[in-house]
């Protein structure tokens, strides 16, 4: 977690597959929580995996928690947990089903997300 920001992943990929993928990429130490399908009482879009991931890193849900995703299920999960939903819009993002109206913020790429985080933290 850079700049003291705890990071976690909440995915609908099966938990063991998610953790194997993160380990293969060498990213394991970047995340304080890695939760996939089946790791919480319910999966996204329910708030349960977010609440469990946040508990793992010693945090509680709220608007200061940013949930970044690229799908409607992610924005619904963020909303269910009471977190700020940030939609990462890219070529594969489906913009139907009202996903834009459910997002609190939108970013066009990871550089844009980085700039948003550094600005919010007063690091610019």
UniProtKB/TrEMBL annotation:
The EC number(s) given in the record are 3.1.3.18
| Uppermost EC category | hydrolase
What Gene3D superfamilies does the database record attribute to this sequence? HAD superfamily/HAD-like
Kindly indicate whether the keyword Hydrolase belongs to this entry: yes
Q: Which organism is it from?
A: Tistrella mobilis
Protein name according to UniProt: phosphoglycolate phosphatase
Gene Ontology terms describing biological process: DNA repair
Record's keyword terms, sorted: Hydrolase
Pathway membership, UniProt: Organic acid metabolism; glycolate biosynthesis; glycolate from 2-phosphoglycolate: step 1/1
Q: Which InterPro entries match?
A: HAD-like_hydrolase_sf, HAD-like_sf, HAD-SF_hydro_IA, HAD_2, HAD_sf
Q: Which GO terms describe its molecular function?
A: phosphoglycolate phosphatase activity
Kindly state which reaction or reactions the protein catalyses.
2-phosphoglycolate + H2O = glycolate + phosphate
**Family to which this protein belongs:** Belongs to the HAD-like hydrolase superfamily. CbbY/CbbZ/Gph/YieH family.
The source's superkingdom equals Bacteria
Q: Does the keyword Cell division apply?
A: no
GO CC, sorted alphabetically, is: cytosol
